[in-house]
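fwd from M.: "can u put these together and see what the complex looks like"

so here's what she sent:
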Amino acid sequence: MGPTLNNVLKFTDLPRMVASRWGDSLEIKIDQERQLIQITCDPEVLQDLCQWLFYRQGYSLATLIAEEAPPEWVMRYILYGDTGNGQVHVLTRFPLSRTKVPSISPAIHAADWQEREIEDLFGLSFEGHPKLGDFILHEDWPEGASPMRTAFDASRLHPRQESGPPWRPEMIVKTPGAFMMPVGPVYSDTAESAHFLLETVGEDVVRTIPKFFYKYRGVEKIAEGMPADHALLLAERFSGSSAFAHSLAFCQALEAICKIQAPPRARALRVLLAEMERLRHHTAAVAGICSSTALAVAASQTSIIEEDLLRLTCRLAGHRYFFGLNTPGGLARDLPDGECKKASEAAWIVLDKLKELHEMLRFTSSFLDRLEEVGSVSRKKAVAYGLVGPVARASGVSRDLRVAQPYAGYGQQTKFQVPREAEGDGYARLRVLFAEAEQSVNLIHQVASTLPAGPVRTAAAPTEGCALGWAEAPRGAAFHWLRTDGSGNIRRYRVMPPSFVNWHGFHLAAEEFAFQDFPIIMATFGLSNAECDR
Amino acid sequence: MTETGSLLLTFFIVCGLGVFTGGLPGNEKHAACVSIIGSVASLALLTASGIVLLSGRAFSMALWALPLFGKMMLGMDRMSALFLFITGMVFLPVSIFSAGYLKRYTGRYSLKSFAVFYFLLFASIALTLMAMDVLSFVIGWEAMSLLGYLLVNYEHEQADTTRSGMVMLLMSEAGTLAVILAFVILARTTGDMGFASLRAGAVHLGAVAGWFVFLLSFFGFGVKAGLVPVNSWLPMAHPVAPGNVSAILSGVILNLGIYGIVRINADILPIAGTGQGLVVLLIGTLSALVGILYATPEDDMKKMLAHSSIENMGIVTAGLGAGFVFLTSGHPVPAGLAFIAALYHMTNHSLYKALLFLGAGSVDMQVGSRHMQGLGGLIRRMPWTALFFLVGALSIAALPPFNGFVSEWLTLQTLLQCAVLPSKAVKITFALCGAGLALTAALAVTCFVKAFAMNFLGKERSEKAAKAAEAAPSMTISMGILAVACFLFGILPTYVIPAMDRVVQPYVHVSAVDQLVPPFFTVGRGNDKFDRTFVADFHKLGAQVGSRVLPGRGLVIMHRGGKRNPVIFAMSPAYTVAVLLLLLGGTFLIIRLLTRRRSLTHGPAWSGGLGRLPPEMTYSATGFSNPVRVIFRGIFRPVTVRDARETVANHFRSAIRKDQLEIHMIDRLFGKPIVHYGRRLAERLGRMHSGRVNAYAAYVLAALLAVLLIQGLA
Amino acid sequence: MLKWVRKGLRAGIKTTGYPHTRESAPGISPGRPAAMLCDGPQEAGAVAGRCPTGALSNQGNMIRVDHRRCVHCGRCRQDHEHAMAWEGGYEWAGGRKAPGEMAAAFSRSLHIRILDAGACGACLSEIKQISSPYYNIHRLGFFITPTPRTADVLLVAGPLTDPMRLPLERCYAAMPDPKRVVAVGACAVSGGIFGPSFAAAAGISQCVPVDIEIPGCPPPPLALLHALLMVAGKTKQT
Ligand code: SF4
């Protein structure tokens, strides 16, 4: 299904092939500098075109953006390819009065949740999508109110309907006697708020239905009209555990709009900080897996490492979670070379500890028994669902934005490997976490020892325009798309975090398992609801 | 004519009256008629049998003599009286119950025919139990079988009803045939068909013939009692039968099977070999296990109760079997105990099973469904039914202070007495059966916790359940009577056990109670077999505690009189109740005292912060019992007929279906092969139909020769 | 399993001495802006104006900090010439009730239920840390419990998104008296950068009565510890 060697295309061949297939029904623009092909097409060929790009040409779906641009709707489907294949933005337009859009989900399942999201928030309906309805907005949200429409007043609480129809999820398991075990939204000790319905006939869980967006803070909506650097606070704080990656993607989108580039030192430091964040996140994820299997000593030892890294970050960057560092045009503060060196040395020590831990875990059979062949996701499914990050890499899909679409200081200067496993089970995901942590320490070391001198910030003047920013967040590919007006205020903001994409595929792993494995499957996915819900 | 006789005459006349009024035109008053006349008949029967049971004055009456069959005799010894008494105890509340219950059939089915069948059935059961000769017995038996079939088949417009009825009739007829054959063998040595002369003649019967009689009669009566492997009709008949008929079927008709086994194997031709006793014990244990295993995961309430009847009949039979083994190995005292336990359990089963069937019938009538999947939360709608059903469930789950506990405890204790038996193999068999029965008891708790919880607790799982109303007073009152009986039989075993002891005394020739129980056990009856110091020891154990306060001394003590370890077992349900009440009251008081100064707040159940918990999110009956299904997968052997994962557009999962087919273990092991070979045989025989006359003549000749040969050999 | 025991023993004791001794390891807290005197009202106004959340206000030369609104963005100290004063420390929790009201409700241990009312993950991560070896709340008799039925303290993080309103109410109602609510982080205290809006409230006090507030974005683990000690009556209120 994925790209094979002979159909990997050079970026330059694509427009010709598209033109020869669909001819003059579409309009193609090429932006060589940004490696971007923009195709405007009729809604009718949309599904065909996207399917061809996704399955035949091996492009991945980044995000889907609906934009209300009177007098018309602009739907933007952003796809990205591997190294050298650039990005394809497929645009389609239709009048505002029309509320039906052809769905691409029957062809590209990865678009399923994104279309449901747009349906819920914009009131557009996707023809051919088999499953629409309450998604982001829960059952007490009044029908017909679409918060993402420009006319919607986002500043005040919207009145809820008092007694909505009782929420009755459709049961997929049709065996007589099946019932749903509800988990959440408030459950476990420190779990994030989310609701799961485990469909079961008694002993084993047959299937899991997640219900999310309890934490929907409407980030995309409340950003509208904000000055860009204020919206940056939202980008940074909607998911505190991967704040640096998201603020980085946001800043890079702004920088692309303003057509500036961060200075080399800032780009290098961004790599260093992003990798420190990844290292910390993966350590925390390993701690989570250990505690989900009730391996207390390993869990507490790992959380000691996590706290060490938090303290290290605070010493280096002034904040335990990298808040306030990224700024459009570079970094808010310079970090002294010496501190970076120290941080890199500390990272080596952390790596040693992690390696020792991994070695011990590898020989703890009671631990492995609970991870192996638990929560498996096949490569085929991972591709179809467009999974990203460590979860996808554990299922043999190794696309990584740092390599596929190099940004900041990634690219020629830095060398690292993207780990990949084939089994797709819980243990494979754990191994990927360890391997990525090792690569991160490697990168930190490379950057810290070759830090270029110079300023860390380029001034940015407010400009009108739109652009996509991206970063490989600890949990996978993150995309931030921005449209600004002339005074630098945000007109439309779109965030596609990795947790959203991977939660979509979570049910693949949470099928046919014993009830007590549920927390383990959750932990090996290591996802965040804050990041998903936005 | 004795008073018993006149009472019995009254009974038959009242039954006749019932049949007569049933035949009257009009359809409105029949429910009330059934109720009132049935109650009167039951009371007459209860008094008549009660007198015999207590006084021991046997009653007998010759009807008329027939050529070839001898005299037809009716009579009542204590054994018959016990069974008649139970019959009356079940028929009384069931008759009252019918007043409300039969209303559901008004306009749909003829109440007239119900009334006629009902009273005829009642009379035929009494006749069967009182028959003292083969002919009356067989007439009563056949009438009872046919009428039972007709009543089960009452809702004849439903297709599966008719089919279930046919299976019931077929198996019952096969049983009757076997019983008749057994009688024929027995009667070979005597000219007379009276039970008394059969008993006298049985002494001359050879061992092989004895085995034949045993096997044939055990098979025949086993069918009626619902023992494996001839139990298939029970779970088919119950769900289609009306609720009140189910109660009679389980509470009375199954007992007739036990009656037959006791009458033949203990009375007419006492079992002679340990082997036969072991067969009874093993079949009983197996029935108990198979019954409860299939009851636990069952979703249909009445089917579940039917399977559980198989279980209980199994326990009774196991008790009988143990008794036979003890008796044949020369230990009449434990044998007596075992019979007491078995009969006690049978009595209890009649009470609580009738109660549960009436409860299920009420729920079925008020909600319109017997499937636990769609019930739930009924305790709020039907509080009385819920309370009485709970009593029934606790009784059948053998929890004190209710009756099931006493008899199951006695049965298990008796099995533990196998230490006295000489053979190692027999001891091991006893131990295994004991373990099997213990497992049965544990599963029964699971089964009835589920039954009560899924019906009455939690959320309503269907619209109908949410709108149900309490059953009519006549229905709740009748359940109340049974519930009180369950409680009384639970706390007053010291009255029941001696009564049972006297029932079994003629067959074991000793009184187990007199042998085992210190004199204070039976109220007001001296026994100076034991010296004073020995009795004083028991006083220290608390045997006399509360003798003034509690109705009868509640302590059940059995002992063997050994110096070092005199007590075999001791237990007191009456004291347990007292202690339980004290504990509950005490706890309540302590909590009140402790929390006097604290405020008590009531909040909704914590559901993870969810607003509304729809019924789909509560535990289902299937879910509750699924662990049992999983653990015993090897027995249930489910066959997956469909395992489909349906998707739309490749990835949108739209349905997961897993349908499994389960064939009852007994049908799988016995039914299927029999049908298979039966067919094969029929095909073979079919080939013999050549159509030529001389071929048929040859067959007749060969058959004749074979008969003569057998006769000559015998 | 033995090897894990050995590893645990080898790692030694990492736990902080707080509250008996002051913890001063580097990196335990990001610190926060402190009230400051400027050279002139103009300049003070300019510094205060840099704050995106309106946490800073000036009266003449004096800049005051409303810590309840500060999200630790660091912008007020970015400009080196007129940087805001910055203080270390972590004892940030403050009561919303009079000190007398709080005391003596709990004498020994505390059971804590954590509720995520739309938190970003940083607060939750810091909350997770309090039961890890470095901070180890168990030594103080504090325990995290999965059910509100046995909880004394409700620790809430996040601005209170709308769908979490009902669960929060339910959770609070399910707790037995006496009970305390602690708002964790700028979002829970004041709505932070998210509320009030169509999707989130301006902090959890709009739904349940808050007893103690911990400002900070996120408040470090020791600030959480400080708040819990306050609930237990083991520290003086600030
Ligand atoms: S750190 Fe940021 S939010 Fe806090 S006072 Fe300074 S500018 Fe305001």
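replying to her w this: The radius of gyration of chain C is 19 Å.
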